[in-house]
Write a structure and sequence with these properties.
This protein is of the alpha+beta class. 51% of the residues lie in helices and 12% in strands. The chain has helices at 3-7, 17-34, 37-43, 48-57, 75-88, 90-109, 112-124, 236-266, 283-316, 322-327, 330-356, 368-377, 383-396, and strands at residues 129-132, 141-145, 148-155, 166-173, 178-185, 191-193, 210-218, 222-224. Strands 1-4-5-8 form a four-stranded mixed beta sheet, with helices on one face. The chain has a four-stranded antiparallel beta sheet with strand order 2-3-7-6, with no helix packed on it. A hairpin with a 2-residue loop joins strand 2 and strand 3 (148-155). Helix 5 packs parallel to helix 8 and helix 9 (283-316) runs antiparallel to helix 11 (330-356). The longest helix has 34 residues, at 283-316.
C-alpha cells in the first residue's frame, strides 16, 4: 500500500487549474510543518513562526469569494487542505480550519456591507482570524450603549485567538436572554488574549481564554443582534464547524496510519514466532492493517460526501430554507462523517503501537501525539448525541434539530 494511495482524494468535481495550486501549496507546507511537529508538540505554546508560514502561503484567502479578492474555493477543497495539514500537524490545521470558520460566519451572518468590508480587509491586510464564539460559555456579557454594546467577561476555548488579528465573538445579552454575534479587532482596547491553553493534546491551537473589559462594540460590527432569530442560512455554520473537526480527526488518522505503515516497513522486526523475515509479511500484521484500513476508508468516503452536500447548501446563500436544510440531510451527512472520523482517529492512533512495537514508543518519534491530539479534540462535543441523532434518523427519518453543534 503506497502513501499515494492512502492520500489520494476521492473522485470529485474537477478542481479549476488555478485552485490546484492550493493542494500543491498545502502539501509542501505540510512537509515543512512535519519537520518540527514532534518537537513543537512537546514544547506547546504559540507557533508564531509556523502561523506566519500559513499567512505567507496565501491559503488564508482560500474560502473568500472572488468578488472580495479571495480565491473562491469550494468547501470540499478547503476541507481537503485541512486534512492535508492535519496529517502533519493537527494543531496548525485546527488554527487554519477555524480561521476559515470565522470567514464562513461573516458570509452567513453578516450583511452585504459587512461582508465586503471585512472580507476585503482580510485579503488586503492578510488578516488571521481567531475564535471567541463559544455558544455554551455565557460569561461574556453585552450591555447596551448609545453606539452599540459594552462587552465584559471571559470567553474560553478560543481557538486561534493568540496571534490573531480579528475575532468573531458571541456575548450574552441579559435583557433579551439571547446572544449577539460580532466581529472585533483582537488588539482593541480592553481585549486581553491569554496564552493559557494547557491540555495534553492540540498544544499549539492557541485555545486559551480571552478577557474583555469594558470593550466598545459598535453597531456596525454586530453580525447578529440580540433577539434576532437565526436564519436557516446562519445555521449552516455549525455544519461547517463540525465537518472541520471531522477532517481534523481524519487527517490525524491518516497521519497515524502512514507513520505506522512506514515504521512497519522500514524499522519493525518480524516476531520470532511468525515464521517470516519481514514484519510486512506477517499475516497477523497484514490482518490488523486491513482492519484499520476498513476504519479509515469509510471515514474518508463519508467526509468527502458530506463536504459535497454542504457545498450545495452553502452556495444557495440566503435562498436556503429550513426545509431544504432538512431534505438535503446535511446535518445527517456531517454527523455520519464525524462519528466515523472520531472512531478512526482514536482507534488507529491507539492500535498503531500494537503493530509497531515497544521501540516505536520512543520520544524521538512522537507517535503518541496522534492519540493525544485526537483524544483532546474529539471531546469538543459528546459523540453520544451525534449517535442519538443518527439513531433517530434511522428509526423515524427525523433530521437533527439545528443547534450550535448540529
Amino acid at each position: 500500500m503506497s502513501s499515494a494511495l492512502l492520500h489520494a482524494p476521492l473522485p470529485q468535481s474537477p478542481v479549476p487549474e488555478p485552485l490546484q495550486d492550493a493542494i500543491r501549496i498545502a502539501t509542501k507546507l505540510a512537509a515543512r510543518l512535519a519537520e518540527t511537529a514532534n518537537a513543537r508538540d512537546q514544547a506547546g505554546g504559540h507557533a508564531a513562526q509556523e502561523r506566519e508560514w500559513l499567512r505567507d502561503s496565501g491559503l488564508l484567502t482560500l474560502s473568500i469569494p472572488v468578488e472580495f479578492g479571495g480565491q473562491g474555493a469550494s468547501w470540499p477543497l478547503v476541507y481537503q487542505v485541512i486534512r492535508i495539514l492535519a496529517r502533519a500537524d493537527s494543531a496548525l490545521a485546527h488554527v487554519f480550519g477555524f480561521h476559515h470558520l470565522q470567514l464562513a460566519g461573516l458570509q452567513l451572518y453578516g450583511s452585504a456591507q459587512q461582508q465586503r468590508r471585512l472580507l476585503t480587509l482580510t485579503v488586503d491586510e492578510r488578516l488571521f482570524w481567531g475564535n471567541a464564539l463559544n455558544p455554551l460559555d455565557k460569561r461574556l456579557t453585552a450591555s447596551d450603549s448609545d453606539d452599540g454594546f459594552i462587552l465584559d467577561g471571559i470567553k474560553s476555548f478560543s481557538s486561534g485567538s493568540v496571534g490573531s488579528d480579528w475575532l468573531t465573538v458571541s456575548a450574552w445579552h441579559a435583557p433579551t436572554q439571547t446572544a449577539l454575534i460580532a466581529a472585533l479587532p483582537t488588539r482593541q482596547d480592553g481585549v486581553s488574549v491569554q496564552a493559557d491553553w494547557d491540555a495534553f493534546g492540540q498544544r499549539q491551537t492557541d485555545s486559551g481564554n480571552v478577557h474583555f473589559q469594558a470593550v466598545a462594540l459598535p453597531h456596525e460590527l454586530v453580525l447578529q443582534a440580540p433577539a434576532q432569530a437565526a436564519t436557516p442560512q446562519a445555521t449552516v455554520r455549525s455544519q461547517i464547524a463540525q465537518l472541520i473537526m471531522a477532517n481534523l480527526y481524519l487527517g490525524i488518522a491518516e497521519g497515524a496510519f502512514e507513520a505506522a505503515r512506514r515504521y512497519t516497513g522500514e524499522q519493525a522486526k518480524a516476531w520470532f514466532a511468525s515464521g517470516v523475515a519481514k514484519a510486512t509479511d506477517d499475516p497477523l500484521i497484514q490482518h490488523r492493517y486491513g482492519q484499520l484500513w476498513l476504519l479509515l476508508r469509510p471515514a474518508q468516503v463519508l467526509a468527502d460526501a458530506a463536504a459535497q452536500e454542504l457545498e450545495k447548501v452553502f452556495r444557495k446563500g440566503a435562498l436556503v430554507t429550513a426545509r431544504e436544510r432538512g431534505l438535503l440531510a446535511v446535518a445527517v451527512a456531517v454527523a455520519e462523517a464525524k462519528c466515523l472520523a472520531h472512531q478512526a482517529g482514536l482507534e488507529i492512533s491507539s492500535q498503531m503501537f500494537e503493530l509497531t512495537g515497544a521501540r516505536s514508543t520512543s520520544a524521538q518519534y512522537g507517535f503518541d501525539r496522534y492519540w493525544r491530539n485526537v483524544r483532546v479534540h474529539t471531546l469538543h462535543d459528546p459523540i453520544d448525541y451525534k449517535l442519538r441523532d443518527l439513531g433517530r434518523f434511522a428509526l423515524t427519518g427525523t433530521v437533527p434539530e439545528p443547534t450550535a453543534y448540529s
